[in-house]
Amino acid sequence: MSTASTLFSGSSATSVMVGNRGNGTAVKTPEPPVLVFFTMHEGKYAFLHFELTDRVYVDPEKCHCRENSKKPCQTVVIVTKGRTIDLRRFSAASQESGKGLYTWDLARFRIPRHPQYNDVEVVKKVQFLTLDFATVEAKDEFRLELKSLEKVRNLDAKMCHDIIAEKQIKNHKPVKR
After folding, report:
1. 30 Cβ partners below 8 Å, 6+ apart?
2. For residues 38 and 90, is the Cβ–Cβ distance under 8 A?
3. What is the pLDDT of residues 27-38, one digit of tens each?
4. How many CA atoms lie within 13 Å of 58's alpha carbon, on the beta-carbon side?
5. Helical H segments across 41-135, by residue range
6. Residue 115, CB half-sphere, CA atoms under 13 Å: how many?
7. Contact (Cβ atoms closer than 8 angstroms) between residue 15 and residue 6
8. At 165, which helix (H) or strand (E)?
9. Rounded CA gap, 48 and 39, in Å?
10. Which residues partner with 58 through β-bridges?
11. What is the pLDDT of residues 89-104, one digit of tens each?
12. Pairing relation of β-strands 44-51 and 56-58?
């Protein structure tokens, strides 16, 4: 007879299994935090969704404000190291009842994956994302929130790494009987 239990910490999960062939632990890597933007695309309201992986970062050197240093910068440019950004877009078709904004459900982006997750458009080969803010203060607030998400991501990744390292050390030590 086998039993299993799952422990959740942050966004990572550890499953402990006890069976007739021995005990085991399955550690799943944590899901990265996501950013969801409400914006306009081709005249339609849209959600943009992307995962804040450890390869995604803000690059202040890519901003056009450097060309005009007299004006305070209100732009954030998000780039990725070596790859493209995995971006998903869900646009509203119309404002009619039963369509468009009335059918929007952010749950389609959740973990575990919602059945409608695959119904969103995947925007391929996005190399950077430029965000223009109305004020410098709004940009600075966004940067602070982004740093908070990065901390969550890094803590989850460290916790997962520590659990795996602990299990590897434990498995290589002889058991006292």
Report:
1. 10, 11, 12, 153, 156, 157, 159, 160
2. no
3. 677 888 888 888
4. 15
5. none
6. 0
7. yes
8. helix 136-172
9. 7
10. 78
11. 888 765 554 556 666 7
12. unpaired
